[in-house]
Amino acid sequence: MTMEKAKDYKELSVMAAERIAMKISNKPNAVLGLATGSTPEGMYDALIKMYNQKRISFAEAATFNLDEYVGLHSDDENSYAYYMKQHLFQHIDLSPEKAHLPDGEADDMDEACKAYEQRIEEAGGIDLQVIGIGLNGHIGFNEPHTPFEQRTHVVELDKTTRNANARFFPSLEAVPTHAITMGIQNIMESKELLLLVAGEQKASVLERLVYGDKTEAFPASIIKEHPNVTIIADQGALSGLKAADYQAGK
Ligand SMILES: O=P(O)(O)OC[C@H]1O[C@](O)(CO)[C@@H](O)[C@@H]1O
């Protein structure tokens, strides 16, 4: 596990975008795994900037998002499909057929989960997966006590997660109760993982990730076993760690 320190959120965002830019420069048809939430917003802004400066092109790339709410139409402004359109897709040259999100509106959810996995497999697997981390250690929407072997599935959202995400909705009741998410196993299968952690409110989460044991009670703890994982964290998020630990790239 490599840890990279950013002085602030802006620097973290640029560092993350540079990782993606490097990936698609080396492999123009790279398969990128994308995340939503507040954390990657700055990274998407930085990527759009690089695209506008003609530094990068997504013309040959494909993307797969980690998760989507169940029951929200892609035009619903709280759906992750809408988020991705607003924050990235409408600004770049990624082909719409190659921009994938789980289908939160499918009649048959089990089928939708299988179909999503199949599309990832057909694309050759994910080269670089960006993830954020929830306050309870979730990755994607894999809540605490999700088995590490879990594949794409429908999940009932934890109270903490619904509360944390209520800021995007008119009320807590409006936050969907379920989501469809890549499983922990899918995340671990990506060739490279990039975890972004920003802000002091995530300091204790990062502390637990770095010093804690591997446990299904804290889903992110598994990523320490991934052979190619980088964490980019800003000063706020790093405030719970001993400086020597991140300088040494623990
Ligand atoms: O970046 P945020 O908004 O703190 O969210 C952290 C994680 O929580 C989720 O938004 C789901 O609640 C993930 O998609 C994200 O990685």
From TrEMBL:
<feature type="active site" description="Proton acceptor; for enolization step">
    <location>
        <position position="67"/>
    </location>
</feature>
<comment type="similarity">
    <text>Belongs to the glucosamine/galactosamine-6-phosphate isomerase family. NagB subfamily.</text>
</comment>
<comment type="pathway">
    <text>Amino-sugar metabolism; N-acetylneuraminate degradation; D-fructose 6-phosphate from N-acetylneuraminate: step 5/5.</text>
</comment>
<comment type="function">
    <text>Catalyzes the reversible isomerization-deamination of glucosamine 6-phosphate (GlcN6P) to form fructose 6-phosphate (Fru6P) and ammonium ion.</text>
</comment>
<feature type="active site" description="For ring-opening step">
    <location>
        <position position="143"/>
    </location>
</feature>
<protein>
    <recommendedName>
        <fullName>Glucosamine-6-phosphate deaminase</fullName>
        <ecNumber>3.5.99.6</ecNumber>
    </recommendedName>
</protein>
<dbReference type="InterPro" id="IPR037171">
    <property type="entry name" value="NagB/RpiA_transferase-like"/>
</dbReference>
<dbReference type="InterPro" id="IPR018321">
    <property type="entry name" value="Glucosamine6P_isomerase_CS"/>
</dbReference>
<dbReference type="InterPro" id="IPR006148">
    <property type="entry name" value="Glc/Gal-6P_isomerase"/>
</dbReference>
<dbReference type="Pfam" id="PF01182">
    <property type="entry name" value="Glucosamine_iso"/>
</dbReference>
<feature type="active site" description="Proton acceptor; for ring-opening step">
    <location>
        <position position="138"/>
    </location>
</feature>
<feature type="domain" description="Glucosamine/galactosamine-6-phosphate isomerase">
    <location>
        <begin position="13"/>
        <end position="226"/>
    </location>
</feature>
<keyword id="KW-0378">Hydrolase</keyword>
<keyword id="KW-0119">Carbohydrate metabolism</keyword>
<feature type="active site" description="For ring-opening step">
    <location>
        <position position="136"/>
    </location>
</feature>
<dbReference type="InterPro" id="IPR004547">
    <property type="entry name" value="Glucosamine6P_isomerase"/>
</dbReference>
